[in-house]
Structures are given as C-alpha cells and as structure tokens.
TrEMBL record:
Protein species of origin: Rhizobium leguminosarum bv. viciae
Keyword field contains Membrane: yes
Keywords: Membrane, Transmembrane, Transmembrane helix
Protein name: Transmembrane protein
Transmembrane segments: 33-58
Length: 82
C-alpha cells in the first residue's frame, strides 16, 4: 500500500480499535450474550404466536362477513357448543 493512501485511510477510519481485553474469549461468546439470545428468541416466539392468533381471528371475522347472517349465526352456535 502506498504512503499517501495509507495516511488518508488512517485519518478517516470509521472502525474503532478493538483492544485484546475487549475481544470475545476463545471459548465462545460471554454468558451474558447467550442469555440475551435466549430472551430474544423467546420474545420472537411469543410475538409470532400472538400474530398467528390475531391473523386467525381477523381471517375468521373477514370470512364471516361474506356469508348470510343465518350461516354466521349457525357458525356461532356450533362454536359455542364446542
């Protein structure tokens, strides 16, 4: 690499220098990061289930709005009876 290019690239470096003490140990990610990953996955699963339930609810409402009132009433009675 030539000198002028290196001088300019060093002056506009956007990446912070990582010290050896800040690096992730060779044994893997720190324990705190692993527990945060578990929490994030659990939150994602909960949101996914909530979205699936909401989608089913609104899909049923949309479907019922297109049928005759007698059929909608019949479906409600069948649902109430189990």
């Amino acid at each position: 690499m030539n000198g002028p290019f290196k001088a300019v690239s060093d002056a506009i470096c956007l990446i912070l220098v990582i010290h050896a003490a800040d690096a992730i140990p060779a044994s893997g990610a720190p324990r705190k990061t692993r527990s945060m990953l578990i929490v994030l996955v659990a939150v994602a699963v909960v949101f996914s289930l909530a979205a699936e339930m909401a989608y089913g609810y609104f899909a049923d409402r949309y479907e019922m709005s297109w049928v005759r009132p007698e059929l909608a009433e019949h479906a409600a009675i069948v649902r109430a009876q189990g």
